[in-house]
Every structure is written in structure tokens, then in C-alpha cells.
Write a structure and sequence with these properties.
three-stranded antiparallel β-sheet, 6 helices, 3 strands, 57% helix
Length: 159
Amino acid sequence: MNRSHLSRDFSHLLSHVERRVAELLRAALAPEGCDVEEWRVLNLLSEGSGYPMAVVADHVGLRPPALTRLVDRLVANNIVYRRVDLEDRRRVRLLLTPRGKSLHRRLAAVIERSQTELFASSHDKELLQDLLLRLDEALDGSGSEAEHQPVMALPRIRD
């Protein structure tokens, strides 16, 4: 396929690359019996002391009913458990079980190997991660033109 047309449309290029990276992620996770959404839940929950369902749904990119089905499956497999939020008893927090923590460590190693193969150097990976984080932060503030700041300022090339 001629890829030159992809570079002309930033949003399409970003979507195209995301789909291809997700395919690599699926392939890396498949032997472990895990899918991408499960991995994203496990990875988020590994970072702290649990998160409310709404935060997890937003992070994973699933609507609440789909997340509930996924979480029900993880609970049934003793990977995740639900706990009433101590600060707001109307909310439920999700946390990893010891088995979930062990699974996360194993999957994190699989993901790290997969991503290492994708980049020529760790510097390239860090650079891309930094740029994507900066883009995400810029998009968070893109509600008004006055707040919008470019992600990166490149020197202008004179004709």
C-alpha cells in the first residue's frame, strides 16, 4: 500500500498507527488469554489504590455497560475485586487481587518485550511517548483558542 497519503492527514495517520499498534498488542496478549481492554484495566489498576468505574471506563474507552461485563468477567476469574469507595459510598472502586497483580507483572513483561521490538532505541520510544503526552495535554486545554498551545514549535524553513 502506498503510505504517502497517510502523512498528509494527521488524524488519519494517528488512527492508522493506533490500529496497527493495537493489533500488535492483541497478538502479544493472545497467548496469555488476555485482550487489549483487559490489559488496559489491569495496567491502570496497577498504578494505585483502585479507581472508580467511571475513571476506568474513560481510560479503557468503553461504555459503562461494556465495562461492567468486562469487570464481571475479571471478578469471576479473581483478577479484580470491587470495593465501596470510603470517601463516597455511592461509588465503587476497582482494585487488583493478588492474582491480578501477578498477572499484571507477567503481562507487563510481555508488553515491554513487544514494544522494545517496535523501536530502534529506547530514546525513540521515550520521544514518541513524550510527544503523545504533550499532544494529549494540549487537547485537554483546547476548549478555547486562547488556552491552546502548540505541542511542539519547529523552526520555520525559509524559501
